Amino acid sequence: MPAPIRLRELIRTIRTARTQAEEREMIQKECAAIRSSFREEDNTYRCRNVAKLLYMHMLGYPAHFGQLECLKLIASQKFTDKRIGYLGAMLLLDERQDVHLLMTNCIKNDLNHSTQYVQGLALCTLGCMGSSEMCRDLAGEVEKLLKTSNSYLRKKAALCAVHVIRKVPELMEMFLPATKNLLSEKNHGVLHTSVVLLTEMCERSPDMLAHFRKLVPQLVRILKNLIMSGYSPEHDVSGISDPFLQVRILRLLRILGRNDDDSSEAMNDILAQVATNTETSKNVGNAILYETVLTIMDIKSESGLRVLAINILGRFLLNNDKNIRYVALTSLLKTVQTDHNAVQRHRSTIVDCLKDLDVSIKRRAMELSFALVNGNNIRGMMKELLYFLDSCDPEFKADCASGVFLAAEKYAPSKRWHIDTIMRVLTTAGSYVRDDAVPNLIQLITNSVEMHSYTVQRLYKALLEDISQQPLVQVASWCIGEYGDLLVSGHCEEEEPIQVSEDEVLDILEGVLVSNLSSSVTRGYSLTAIMKLSTRFSSSVNRIKKVVSIYGSSIDVELQQRAVEYNALFKKYDHMRSALLERMPIMEKSTTNGPTDIVQTNGEAEPSVLENKHITGGHQPASQANDLLDLLGGSNVLPVIQTAASTKPASAGGELLDLLGDLTLSGGPVTVPTAPLSVSQTPFLLDGLGPQPLFNDVTAGIPPMTAYNKNGLKIDFTFERSNTNPNIAVITIHASNSMDAEMTDFVFQAAVPKTFQLQLLSPSSNIVPALNTGTVTQVIKVLNPQKQQLRMRIKLTYMHKGSSIQDLAEVNNFPAQSWQ
Amino acid sequence: MIKFFLMINKQGQTRLSKYYEHVDIHKRTTLEADVIRNCLSRSKDECSFVEYKDFMLVYRQYAALVIVIGVDDDENELAVFELIHNFIEVLDKYFNRVVSCKCDF
Fold this sequence. Notes:
The complex is a heterodimer of chains A (about 800) and B (about 100). The radius of gyration of chain A is 39 Å and the shape is extended.
């Protein structure tokens, strides 16, 4: 059998291959030759064959049949064999293969070998691929080598120890004594690897961290020597002495100084020195400065030092080198939370970076810009960000759009500006906007009552130009459906009114309906919008009827269902149509998109659809309140929804029925149609099931009043008006007890006349402490759409000194402002 | 922590690869091709740090060879950039010209 070819020739041959297939063929041929050579157990050429195998493995071809050969090479006595064998073990073997355990004995012997190079090989291999069992067996040997005076071995042993600690964290204590004088070495290699070992130990164990804090002075001294020492050819990199070691030491100082005042104080001087003395003309210097800045920001440094750090970052931002600018933006992003004002000073430079060509820089600048937006700079920043949105790559558009929405929501100076901004985003980046933007925008539009005509006009114009962006089309259809009458009437204070006829509006909505560009969700929106217009447009009812009936046989089930229901609305329930398709009430904003969105079905966020479905679907809205209504036999009492849920609601309702038996109504219609009630009822009642809506408005000066004061129990009412719905009065009751025994199991119930709606939220507790030492509070929300005079019957039950006490009372002395 | 170290030429052929965390051999070729595509598609004015999946790629081009180091978040990118240059200088000093590795087997 001829001698196997050398590695060099193999590489040359492979490089001559012109195609992938040719290369594969060559490699397969060579693999076959190698395999047969292995079978012959040829000792002389084994290392050559394994070397070739390793090269082929690096190119991506499987080489597992060489694993055992590596082991044989390791066991051999020749150094060249061992070298290739260990390399092969590092590349081909890992803990997944059972074969690797056979190496343990070899490594153990080699760790005690007479030649330091062999010992070094063994340490490297163990540190590279040692499994936990191997590490456990050999940790003692490694620890011994860590204490040797031979610096070549010591540095390798330190790195091996890092690997052992990563694999078997329990062995960390074992290496502790060996670390005692690691830092007193002169050899930079040992110093560097020791710092790595110390860093690893500190990161893994807080005890070690506390233990190593005493090393801070020593580290500071080493760093100082590095900076102050003159030129040393061995360690010089572009004029700076061993920058890699400097960076490592700075990082370890960062870990040690975090959250610790004493260590941070010990480092202040050296950090200032490094920051001012390092030469910044080359990349090396900047690398060290970067690490210094990161360290300063992370430890408890004094304010002067922090200002210095931010200024360094500011200087980086103006540097021509892209890498440095990128690094500056990244670190500013980390510090913007803590040192907001300092970063604001560099805002204009950051905004300029948005226009940079580099993708990484643009992304960082965008994130940083969003972090810097506040109430003062919102207008200018938004202009820049919108410009950026126009011109950026698609991968940024989604994030940028969400960021713009968030910022606009938090800091919008006026409603009109807010709506304009959102419209701009929808028209430029419409298809990248996230799904929840549509319901949020719709809610925003409903809440800004005075802007309705302006909004619908702008949306109409946008729709005329382009119907391809789904979120925009959805919002526009919804608005046109709601406020189409405003559009046609041509009134608009904010802008030049445009003349639009009913037919034109219907044209465009039908256009959306039939277009290929519209998704089925969008079609649903536009069909509902067309339907709503049947009450708002006077002359187009027939046309609308026609459109709706066509879709009664649509293939899309969603559209078909809607069309069929709307058809039914035209035919059988025409008398209810105007009530059903009334204007939407102002939606209460919840802090999170929580259960208020229970109103969604089929992933849509259109509340009106659900309402219509509810009504037309069964004429018995499934909400809780109306179940109770049925339970009570359809009486004219509106029961209380008690979220305290201490008693069964049904029985509570029954009691209240008795309660209000003779409560005469001073006015208001007796028959209230159920339909509009449920329309406005459902969002209101569901609010109670969700997170507390915000009623963070001023109390508007409604004076508090005492509602009840008997037998030591006093109940005060304080008032607030909910800022999203002026018809809702929020009453907080404060129950206090002036007796000397506390009242337990305290339950407060209330009932109101039929024209009102009441909602009781959970009380703060059931126990009213004695002698006025504390109060129980509970929130009541009263919806008073007809602005009737507020009256209430309350029932109190509690245990006092072992006996159960009940009382009824009527509250009539509500201040006028609470219900007007 | 350094995750991998690659030397790839402009045609996409791997000249040297070392992985410090195990990556399946089949995934390696796709990873290398992806990485080199990312790095070569960037112009000279763009910065040398690219975010790729959960690594940060630090790359540097020398004539027809691109050296890429994949690191995770807590590395100083500028220092790694300097490390690449240090490595090339060492090879340069040891082998005279950084063209191809001379191996004597």
